[in-house]
Amino acid sequence: MRKTVIGLMLIFITSFLVKEVNANEYLTYQEIEFEQNGAKLLESYSNGEYEKYYEKLTKKKFWGWRTYIRFENEEVSFLKDTLFVIINEGETPITETFSIKKEEYVKKQYSVTGTLGLDVKASDKGFKLGLEEKLKFSITKTVYTEIEEEFEMKVLVDSMTKLTVEVRGEGKVSNGIAKYYRFFKNVKKGGWEIFVVTTEYYSLKKELINEN
Amino acid sequence: MKTKIVFGLLAFLLVVFIGLLFIPSEKNLKVITSPKIFSLLKSSNNESIEVELLVNKNDTYYFDKDYIFGVSLNSESDEEIIPLEIDDISYGDSLYDFDNDKFYLVNLSLSVGFESKDYLIDFKKAYLDISYNNEENLKLFIGEFNYLFNEDINSDLGISNLSSTVFKSNEINTVSGIFIELYNMSDENLVITSFDLGSTSVKFNDYYLYEIYNEPDLFDSVDEILLVENYDFYIDTSSYNKSMLLKENQSVMLYIPLIYLGEIEYIHRFFFQVNYLSNEGETILIIDDIPYVSTSIFQTSLEDGYLVYEIPN
């Protein structure tokens, strides 16, 4: 009986480990919407889906990766957290000069689940053990850079309103699963995902403060 | 014995010759620019002008600050030259495949080499001119360049909404119009007359400056917002001033579409000015440049506009 309980606990813990996503910033976005129905993020894969896709990679390998691509360059739109907020709960309008720092521009972000790893040492963080090179599809052709810049503006915030800098964007998502073999033994397996932010849109928005 | 030495020598020379054949000759340096419209307002001393290039070598002295003697921005026939200072040169991590070669992204952070309180640099065609300690020179076309020094403080008008709408012009994502909410903070009535965009080839179409009552969505078309049919982005109907009364302590939501009249058919970031009449006469409000669309200038949809400079070894 004790063994059964321990066994069940192990299965329970493993199910969390399998689904735990070692991920990048994009999973904190407020909304992510796929253009095509049915496409989904890695974090939405069920355990059943993982098992189904692992079964597609039953052929062993002496050394290296076996990969399965479930979604390839699926178009998404997203809403990021707002960058800047001025709240005016007073009774008269206020004017303020705001300045925000825009940090990154288009970029590539990676996530993994299971026992796959991310190379955190590289400045452009990618998968460990050269997984990306083994994924034989063309990731959106563009180059990525980091630019820090500020812009300033004099704004008016009406009574009981808040002013935010909203960032919306578009990107492409590819994901699937992979297994890594050494001497025909499967030593690593899990899900992988690449999220490429291709465009971001900035806007200044006035919203009423919810008095609740 | 002698024959053996001669044959040995010949064999050695043959091996050296074959070896030389297989040593790859050093490739020529290639630099790619993707001309765009620069429209920048100098609003703080921390700002720099970012010029991005693709370069097929990451160890060339052409983009090493220590070997660069000077940088300037030149107009088409060099009749106007603006001195620039290099703040930084950095290489990106990722590679870009183009024309059977791999390219690195090089970012030049530059600043204008003088100060002013009210001055506009507007080059319809701007060239980045880099001169080197060995007297070499590189001249790269970077697009249209507009840079405004302005320290005016406007206390008549405040902004409380500012966003763009976008559309695809020949597969390139660009701004179709601007939505702005203005608030009259002064103690007099103001009359808004026109909008001017900080570019010589992309303008606001004042004929279609309309007051609207609902905030448009980013992807709404000009036709949907203004209830017009087949708005044309490439015909200039802008020489028309409107008069919109904005009473004191009142706000107004306005939408104004753009027109594209030059070779570069996209704009992602720009400053603009609102022209209005007050008791003091014609006055302006300048709106800082915001990245309404933030994306890479190196992507498949822009490849037709790339300029490739090849510098022989």
Describe this structure in words.
Chain A is mainly beta and 212 residues long. Chain A has three helices and ten strands; from the N terminus they run αβαββββββαβββ. Chain A has one domain. Chain A is 14% helix and 50% strand. In chain A, strands 1, 2, 3, 5, 9 and 10 form a six-stranded antiparallel beta sheet that branches. A two-stranded antiparallel sheet of chain A has the order 4-8. The N terminus of chain A is likely disordered. Chain B folds into two domains: 138 residues; 135 residues, Immunoglobulin-like, CATH 2.60.40. Chain B is built from two helices and 19 strands. Chain B has a nine-stranded mixed beta sheet with strand order 2-8-7-4-5-6-3-1-19, with no helix packed on it. The longest helix of chain B has 21 residues. The model of chain B has no long low-confidence stretch (mean pLDDT 90). Chains A and B meet through β4, β8, β9 and β10 of A and β3, β5, β6, β9 and β10 of B. β10 of chain A pairs antiparallel with β18 of chain B, so a sheet runs across the interface.
Q: Classify the helix fraction of chain A into a percent range.
A: 10-25%
Low-confidence stretches of chain A: 3-20
Give the structural class of chain A: mainly beta
Query: How many domain units of chain A?
Result: 1
Strand order of the largest sheet of chain B: 2-8-7-4-5-6-3-1-19
Number of strands of chain A: 10
Element string of chain A (H = helix, E = strand): HEHEEEEEEHEEE
Tell me the distance between the termini of chain A: 52 Å
**Count of DSSP strands of chain B:** 19
Which chain pair has the greatest contact? A-B, 39 and 46 residues
Q: Briefly, what is this?
A:
The complex is a heterodimer of chains A (212) and B (313). Helix content of chain A is 14%, strand content 50%.
What structural keywords apply?
heterodimer; A: 212 residues; mainly beta; 14% helix; B: 313 residues; 9-stranded mixed β-sheet; 5-stranded antiparallel β-sheet; 2 helices; 19 strands; elongated
